Amino acid sequence: MSQQCNVKLHTLADAVVRVPAPDRDARLWFPARRRHDPPRLPGLSLEPGSRGAQGAVLKAVLHRVLSIAQTPMGNVQLLDGGRLHLARHAGLNGYFTEFFAFVDGSTTACGQAAAQRRQVTVGDVASAEVFDEASRHAILQAGSRAAHSVPLTSGSGAILGMVSSHHERPMADFTTAQLAAFQQTGAHTGRWLSWHWNTVVLDALERLHATATRPPY
């Protein structure tokens, strides 16, 4: 009988993958798995050979969103056991990154965007009702007065993570073209993350299983 098995593989951005343990004496851990080529990532600037590397993709996604938003500050979070885990950031200080290392409530733009499964714009952090006071202080002290969060969604619409931009000044809404570009980036990235976790990560677990169950010589 199999049991729940929590496996953490360390990459440039940690991901926690929870899968059932293999059946006793099973030759393969995931015998019915279908393998696919990685989804396309249009609009992302990736170095040759890095299309299968999660850290490189998250770096490119953050760069793409910050370019659309025209700001140097932002971060990427991955869903980890029902909460968002900070995986990559740019232009944000240590207080911010430590405070928002994990987000599991809806008192932030990213938490609200995850709960509502949609993009969320906060035009003025200083007065927005979405934040509790501790979260508001952590954002303001980093020099951010506005924020925008974009869900990273799988093909089925499941939330796999979040990418957010932060802005030095209060702002109005983004244009329709910008919002569409954010949405497309979030959808393409989410599909890629789903592929990566179900292909690259499970391949690594399969190799580990094969090594552990190989008969001694």
List its traits.
217 residues, alpha+beta, six-stranded antiparallel beta sheet, two-stranded antiparallel ribbon, 6 helices
Task: Write up what this structure looks like.
- The radius of gyration is 19 Å and the shape is globular.
- It has a six-stranded antiparallel beta sheet with strand order 5-4-3-8-7-6, sandwiched between helices. Strands 1-2 form a two-stranded antiparallel sheet.
- It is 35% helix and 23% strand.
- It has six helices and eight strands.
- With 217 residues, the protein is of the alpha+beta class.
Helix content: 25-40%
Low-confidence stretches: 1-15
- Mean residue pLDDT: 84
- Give, in spatial order, the strands making up the sheet with the most strands: 5-4-3-8-7-6
Structural class call reads: alpha+beta
Helix tally equals 6
Q: How would you characterize the largest beta sheet? A: 6 strands, antiparallel
Q: What is the distance, rounded to the nearest whole angstrom, between the alpha carbons of the first and last residues?
A: 28 Å
Instruction: Work out the strand percent.
Output: 15-25%
Mass-distribution shape: globular
SSE arrangement, N to C? EEHEEHEHEHEEHH
Q: Characterize the quaternary organization of these chains.
A: single chain
State Rg: 19 Å
Strand runs, count: 8
